[in-house]
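re: ur msg from earlier - yeah i can do the 2-acetamido-2-deoxy-beta-D-glucopyranose complex, just paste it... oh wait u already did. ok heres what im feeding in:
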Amino acid sequence: MRMKLWLYLILSVCFMLAVGFLYYSSWRISLRVWVHKSLYDEQGFLLKLDGTLSLELTYKYGNLSKGACKPGFAAAKMTAIYPKFNKLAPVFLDLNYKRFAKIGDYPPPFGVKSQERIIDHLLSVTKNYGLGENLDIISCKTCIIMGNGGILINKSLGQQIDGFDVVVRLNQAPVKGYEKDVGSKTTLRITYPEGAIQKIDQYEDQSLFVLSAFKAQDFKWLRYMVFKQGLHNTNGFWKSVARHVPREASDMRILNPYFIQEASFQLIGFPHNNGQMGKGVLGGGPA
Ligand SMILES: *[C@@H]1O[C@H](CO)[C@@H](O)[C@H](O)[C@H]1NC(C)=O
Ligand SMILES: *[C@@H]1O[C@H](CO)[C@@H](O)[C@H](O)[C@H]1NC(C)=O
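and the outut:
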């Protein structure tokens, strides 16, 4: 009798182990199958970026003539790679920015919360919200974003860079004296108070000055720049800031914070943190 009890016990332990193993391995198998089945990564990007488009998209947008304008092509391709892509976002804040609900709930840098009054004021003075007449009428613009690494030196790419309709530069990226390598055209210079060029003679004559606001203070700073008031108090900035920007109000823009929101939460997968910027994470802004 005692012997039988032992047998039962051993049998049931074996059985439990067997079931447990089956359960565990099937879970692993199904997990593996699931991982393999997903075509997209955690952020929602297509895993296999081989650059081919579905036939449908190719027919719809792919005018294969060299240099042909392909309206909607870039957006279609982006949507194929990244289905969450939302192209309905103006680059700069304009008078309708409050209708763009995605930015109303977050303070800077992800939105405009509590900054509406100062933004209304700024927009009423800048009065321009596009790239400028000459560019706004082009239906198919080419654009290049210049990084600030030294890799361009001695590459003689200046002429090629200038061939783009829109040339975007960031912060203090120098142009004067480096035209052969980096080009001489600047359509937009996107920056923030601590990153902005401080030497007035380093500003190019033709370019839009675009604020990418990281904190509430940055909008106040822009107001000083727009109204050409001397900035005396620089409390609240983490390093010295430009005190004068030699651009007319009509040449100043505010970058839509939606792009920072989208880049941070969707593209990079930044921790959401209730829409507050974590200390020391993005604290410095881009270099
Ligand atoms: C493709 O582009 C060429 C060059 O711009 C243009 O002449 C042609 O009409 C375009 N074809 C279609 C189907 O849009
Ligand atoms: C660029 O070219 C100049 C002239 O040939 C040379 O003196 C300089 O060292 C080069 N700079 C780099 C970073 O290669």
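cool cool. The pocket of 2-acetamido-2-deoxy-beta-D-glucopyranose (ligand 2) is lined by residues 153-154 (CB under 6 Å). ping me if u need the other ligands too
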